[in-house]
Design brief:
The protein is an alpha/beta fold and 553 residues long. It has helices spanning 36-43, 75-83, 94-116, 138-147, 159-171, 186-191, 202-231, 233-272, 279-283, 294-334, 340-357, 378-403, 423-442, 457-474, 479-484, 508-520, 522-549, and strands spanning 8-16, 49-55, 68-69, 89-93, 153-155, 177-180, 194-198, 286-288.
Length: 553
């Protein structure tokens, strides 16, 4: 029971009424024991049932020094003992759970009757409590809401009792996952936040388990042989000359045995495909054919992977929308626009990258760290603002630099006119696409919830290909590619390329950029700004992630 040290305890009914002792001893010496009947008598509640947590190993009567009375004040102490691993866990049977619920309903009725008529000398008569429906009674659920989170094992529970346990956990603010394999689990499967129906086929389960154990045994033997081989290579070489035939025969037999076990596992999985689903599959959103509660970990791993994927998609969409709005505004103010082929290519690239983001697979191990539950959390919002600020500055720098090489009296600079390639829309197109691609690479979550970017090869190769194409266009390495994307020729960056009309509007930033372009060349300056944008955005994201993860460690 549980994973802690010490004894495991069980909740039992130990006494009924005043002075009627079951051998547990009315004079308890334990500091955690309370005379519950005396307390009820003082409150005028009348005779009642008393419960206590007692060691599972005990049979018959239990002395006060071993007993922990079941009273509200002791439940926090039980939780504290479980955290400190002083006790292994707490167990409760379905029968005792029903009695606790019935007694809670009776006690609540007596208290309400006493409150209505405080002058009454005789204890109020309690109506009959139906054991079949009492568990979902509001008074019973209020009591179970305090008890159920303390319990580690629920033993011998009927369908209505399972449903009541899940309802109490839900009311206590817990997130519940229920695994069931039959009709008797339907109520609890519907009540739980996550329901998993397990296909129960004993024969196939035994066959699959035997095959898996055989494979694991062979793998363990292989690991041991590798360890022995590392420790004494010289001895194994000398020995291999003498008994190489024997070792070869052993390897063949192991290979045949492994193939046999794998074949048995494949046959069991094929037979499972033809097994009819039961009523539990109708009541639950998930159905597992693994015949093991390991499916609970699978649901958590895949659910976390899906949640993280959707959160990063929302972050990417948010940043890209802000960047595109900024670029379109700047171009419209300058009378420029983007070409149809440019927008088509960008749309196809973004659609492909979004598809490849979803190809990230969950990890095989479940991380103790929890992912963010909402894209509106502080970390996500701060990350979006920080990355957009970096892209904002980079785009302003590129547009400011490009404007110096634009003719202000160019008749083609009309907001609603036809598209004409120029330095401004070419530079902003390259920077915008780079910011978009960088957003996918930077915001890819990776471990501990899903594969890293280096493991999602299709996304990694796509991002690398996009970077290569963008920098090739910026450096004009392959002019036909620039023509295909409707990009104009970029200036050399010399002072002779400046437009006279733009000289009057020089600012400190533009002067600095123009001096850099004059020294390094326009193409090199543009490539430098693109690299700087990606590096700073990546550093900002890592800094924010480190800030929010530091308190957890």
């Amino acid at each position: 029971v549980g994973g802690g040290g010490g004894e495991a305890y069980e909740l039992r009914e130990v006494r009924r009424g005043f002075g009627s002792d079951d051998g547990a001893g009315s004079s308890a010496s334990s500091s955690m024991d309370v005379d519950f009947d005396a307390e009820l008598e003082r409150q005028g509640a009348g005779p009642s049932v008393e419960f206590a947590f007692v060691p599972l190993t005990s049979t018959g009567s239990v002395g006060g020094e071993k007993r922990i009375a079941y009273v509200p004040s002791n439940l926090p102490a039980i939780e504290d003992m479980l955290k400190r691993k002083e006790i292994a866990g707490v167990c409760v049977s379905g029968e005792v759970l029903t009695k606790v619920a019935a007694e809670a309903v009776r006690r609540a009725y007596r208290e309400r009757a006493r409150a209505r008529d405080p002058s009454s000398a005789s204890p109020p008569s309690v109506p009959h409590v139906d054991d079949k429906s009492v568990l979902l009674h509001p008074d019973a659920q209020a009591e179970l809401r305090r008890l159920v989170p303390v319990v580690s094992v629920f033993a011998r529970h009927a369908p209505r009792q399972k449903e009541a346990v899940i309802a109490a956990l839900n009311a206590a603010g817990r997130t519940t996952l229920m695994c069931g394999d039959g009709t008797n689990d339907m109520g609890a499967l519907k009540m739980a936040h996550v329901g998993i129906s397990i296909v129960s086929v004993p024969d196939l389960e035994a066959k699959q388990r035997e095959a898996m154990e055989g494979v694991e045994k062979l793998q363990e033997e292989e690991r041991k042989e590798k360890k022995r081989a590392k420790k004494g290579k010289k001895k194994l070489k000398e020995k291999g000359i003498a008994d190489g035939g024997v070792r070869g025969g052993t390897k063949k037999s192991k290979k045949k045995s492994l193939e046999k076990h794998l074949r048995a596992m494949a046959e069991a999985e094929e037979e499972l495909d033809f097994v009819a689903l039961g009523d539990a599959s109708v009541a639950s959103p998930f159905t597992s054919k693994t015949m093991s509660i390991k499916c609970a970990c699978d649901v958590l791993q895949r659910g976390r992977c899906t949640l993280v994927t959707m959160l990063q998609i929302y972050k990417i969409l948010g940043i890209n929308c802000l960047v595109n709005a900024l670029v379109l505004t700047k171009l419209h103010m300058a009378g420029a626009k983007q070409g149809d082929r440019q927008l088509t290519v960008v749309g196809l690239v973004i659609a492909g990258l979004f598809l490849f983001v979803t190809k990230g697979q969950p990890l095989r191990t479940l991380s103790p760290e929890r992912p963010p539950s909402s894209v509106l959390c502080a970390r996500a919002l701060l990350s979006i603002m920080a990355q957009f600020l970096v892209h904002f500055l980079a785009i302003f720098a590129v547009t400011d630099l490009s404007a110096a090489y634009m003719d202000p009296w160019d008749p083609s600079l009309v907001p609603d006119g036809p598209f004409n390639a120029n330095v401004l829309n070419t530079s902003t197109f390259l920077m915008t696409v780079l910011a978009t691609v960088s957003t996918f690479a930077i915001n890819y979550q990776g471990r501990p919830f899903m594969e890293d970017l280096s493991e999602n090869l299709v996304l990694l190769r796509s991002v690398q290909a996009c970077y290569a194409v963008l920098f090739a266009c910026a450096a004009e390495v392959f002019p036909p590619l620039n023509d295909l994307l409707q990009l104009s020729a970029l200036p050399l960056g010399t002072k002779e390329d400046w437009m006279i009309g733009q000289a009057e509007g020089f600012t400190f930033t533009r002067a600095l950029l123009l001096d850099t372009a004059q020294t390094m060349g326009f193409k090199a300056t543009l490539c430098g700004l693109m690299v700087l944008d990606s590096v700073v955005a990546y550093a900002a994201e890592k800094a924010i992630a480190g800030f929010f993860e530091a308190p957890r460690k």
